[in-house]
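Let us work through a complete example step by step.
Step 1: write down the sequence.
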Amino acid sequence: MTTSAAEIAVLFADIGDSTALYEALGDTDAHRIVSGVLDTLSDVARRHGGTVVKEIGDEIMVTLDTADAAAAAACDMHEALEDRNEHDSGKTAVSVRIGLFHGPVIARTEDIYGDTVNIAARMVQQAKARQTVLPRATAAMLSGAFRRSTRFIDYATIRGKGEVELVELLWEHDDLTLAAGADQAVDSSASPAGRLRVRYGECEVVLDASRTVLVLGRNRICNLRIDEPMASRQHVRIERRNGRYFLIDQSTNGTWLQQADAREQFIRRSEHPLIDAGRISLGRRLDDARAKTVEFLVEPA
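Step 2: predict the structure and record it as tokens.
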């Protein structure tokens, strides 16, 4: 039996209230739905470079190289099930609760062991449906865009670790806007900025000191809904922060940005300042004939 040690991220995703599915639909239909959902979660994990270690009933355990990869996979798992539920003619909505932790593990053939696994399992127990929970120490390892999408939820006592601060990784439009708004309130020293005009087709949204956040994507609750199959449900967020405007990608397929210097930049799970004027495409290169282009203009103060 091969044994090795490494520091990685461990993620547990558990299907919420699957017992109710079995009671409502019977064993055959419920098992088919649960199996399909586990396949979807596994596919998302692999797209982010993850390894599905095992299935445990209606739960999967996944390893990923970094905390960022685990956070991206968690957000996309929730989004994938939102897509599934939106198109489910059988009205059998399914959600997951997710817990993750980054730390050392002991890897033996086809399985992993250690405190990191135990803590990640404890995190999923703390999570509610449609929620991702992780310790503050793991959240501190996330890159800026992910780190700003976390908020404190509680403390929990973990055996051998004492009291641990828990945070939630936000992925939904309303919660992300709230988190961004909280950041704005703290930064009272930011210098005044001009307005930002964002246009898609005949629709235009203006950001300024009174409206500081804009979300673009294909979800109907986005501020600008983009009719693009390659776009995520809440694909990209634009924030007014520290006297400047920032584009923050939170998608699966990334965002293409072209500014005044005409260079085309690819942004994925990171952020970039918006300067002067330019174009944005969600999930496709700007030179793709199918791209749905969003235009922006930063007006001077």
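Step 3: interpret the result. The longest helix spans residues 27-47.
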